[in-house]
Amino acid sequence: MRSLRFFNTLGRELQEFRPLVPGKAGFYGCGPTVYNYAHIGNLRAYVVDDLISRTLRWFGYEVSHVMNITDVGHLSGDDDSGEDKMLRSAQERGQSVLEIARLYTEAFFRDTERLNILRPGVVCKATDHVPEMIALIKRIEANGYTYFAGGNLYFDVSRFPSYGELARLRLDDLQAGARVEIDANKRNPADFVLWFTKSKFENQALVWDSPWGRGYPGWHIECSAMSMKYLGEQFDIHAGGIDHIPIHHTNEIAQSEAATGKKWVSYWLHNEFIVMNSGKMSKSKGGFLTLQTLVDAGYNALDYRYFLLGGHYRSQLQFSYEGLDSARAARRSLNERVLALRDRAGEGGATSPSGAGGATSPSAVGGMTGAGAPGPAASSDPHPTPGNLEKLIGHLSPAAAARLKAFADAMADDLSTPRALAELWGILRDSLVLPAEALQTAFAMDEVLGLGLADLKREEVPSVDPGLAAEIEGLVAERHLAKKAKDWARADAIRDELKNRGIILEDGPSGTVWRLEAAALVAPAGARASGTQSPT
RNA sequence: GGCGCAGUACCCAAGUGGGAAGGGAGAGGUCUGCAAAACCUUCAUGAGUCGGUCCGACUCCGACCUGCGCCUCCA
Question: Within 7 Å: CB of A342 and strand B?
Answer without folding.
Answer: no
